[in-house]
Amino acid sequence: MTATHEIIFDRLVYSCAFEKHRGSEEFYPDHFLGFQLCGETHAFHDQGFTVIHENMVVLVKKNQLIRTIKYPSKSGKYNFIAITLDKETLQRYAFENKIVIDTQYRGKQKLFFEPNEFLTSYFISLAPYINKTKQATPRLADIKVREAIELLLDSNPDLKYILFDFIKTYKIDLEEFMNNNYMFNVPIESFAKLTGRSISSFKRDFAEIFDCSPKLWLKNKRLEEAYYLIKHKRQKPTTFYLDLGFENLSHFYSSFKEKYGLTTSEI
């Protein structure tokens, strides 16, 4: 059985699986607070690899590219709850509580929390909505999201610099970003947004830096990494082609032969 996602109310998503499931790349435009009920999640991101264990709470910062692998527990269950902290709700909360942030957060972001009574109780309180024993009205949904914000600020007041940073995204170093995120198979539009650019300015800046189109550069970059893994790490394409952003093996093999004039077995 494949993994399933169910939207309980507009900002609460419940995910479950009964066998190992490799998720696709996902772009998260909003912050979200998550809780691992059963099993564990292996998350791959531009900073490396993180394992989210059972009973771990995680705050994921907005504008992230993440790939996940979901592992059920020994009982055969995988359950994860994620509640979105959308910009509109955060702006309204900041206005009502007179919170103004005029500088960006510079410290080390603590995005993982040890289970505590308040956070654990919060997620337990969502059970009636997940089990469908209680229907969430828009007002109740809004209250639950606000409660999540209150608990986050109580656990770490400095998180206000992350949650309430509404400064318009500025252009970031395009070369560094692409070299850290080339393996994510997402549309060019997502890469543009994540680097603080429109599609046209992204393509223009990209051409100036890399002297080719984003599509061609991504293809060559992924193939170069594949060559390295085959030649020097003795890895088989079946173990890494998805992780490098290729959609299927036949596409990978044909692209590899076209670039290097050799099959992977001839390397």
* CATH secondary-structure class of the largest domain: Mainly Beta
Q: Enter the CATH topology name of the largest domain.
A: Jelly Rolls
Q: How many structural domains are formed by the residues?
A: 2
Order of strands side by side in the largest beta sheet?
1-2-10-5-8-11
Q: What structural class is derived from the secondary structure elements?
A: alpha+beta
- DSSP helix fraction: 25-40%
N-to-C order of helices and strands: EEEEEEEEEEHEHHHHHHHHHH
In the CATH hierarchy, the architecture of the largest domain is Sandwich
Strand fraction equals 15-25%
Question: Given the structure, what is the number of helices?
Answer: 11
Mean pLDDT: 90
Could you tell me how far the N terminus lies from the C terminus, measured between alpha carbons in angstroms? Answer: 37 Å
What characterizes the major β-sheet? Answer: 6 strands, antiparallel
Rg for CA atoms: 21 Å
Shape: globular
Low-confidence stretches: none
**Care to count the β-strands?**
11
Question: How would you characterize this protein structure?
Answer:
The chain is an alpha+beta fold and 267 residues long. The chain folds into 2 domains: 4-163, Sandwich (Jelly Rolls), CATH 2.60.120; 174-266, Arc Repressor Mutant, subunit A. Helix content is 39%, strand content 22%. Strands 1-2-10-5-8-11 form a 6-stranded antiparallel sheet. Strands 3, 4, 6, 7 and 9 form a 5-stranded antiparallel sheet that branches. Strand 6 (40-45) and strand 7 (48-52) form a beta hairpin. It is globular.
Name its key features.
six-stranded antiparallel sheet, 267 residues, Arc Repressor Mutant, subunit A, globular, 39% helix, alpha+beta, 22% strand, Jelly Rolls
